[in-house]
Amino acid sequence: MGNHDLYGHEQPIVQALRAAGVQLLNDEVIGIEHEGQPIWLVGRFDNHKRQRVATTDLLAQVDTTQPVILLDHRPSDIAEHSQMPIDLQLSGHTHNGQIFPANFIVSAINRLGYGYEAMGKGHFVVSSGYGFWGIPFRLGSRSEIWLITVNGHVGDNV
Question: pTM (2 decimals)?
């Protein structure tokens, strides 16, 4: 869930997503298997949630010798996460500024405010997202959906 999902509309959003068959990971982990390969998905609440679980506490629940994908709405902890056993982190929140010149501000206040970068022990993706915040308008930032193919084996850098 993103920060704006938590401002009084959380329950209808959760109900709609669950009705559509989406499994939410609200400070939770789940192990899945893909082609015989175990993969851990770790989902965190946005940091506006007061009792958000620490990433280290969530990672303590998984086998970090297997691939770990972290879903964290904000990219604000990327520098710290790059030193943890996280193979791939997917984030959003910034909208890449949404309206020029805010994209420069996003870039200045975030280690990675938009795009892809391999750093430390993992790979990090920050999407500008499909929607918007406030006014339904973008300038200097586009709506997007990333399609990511993950290749690798246990022990490899995914």
Answer: 0.85
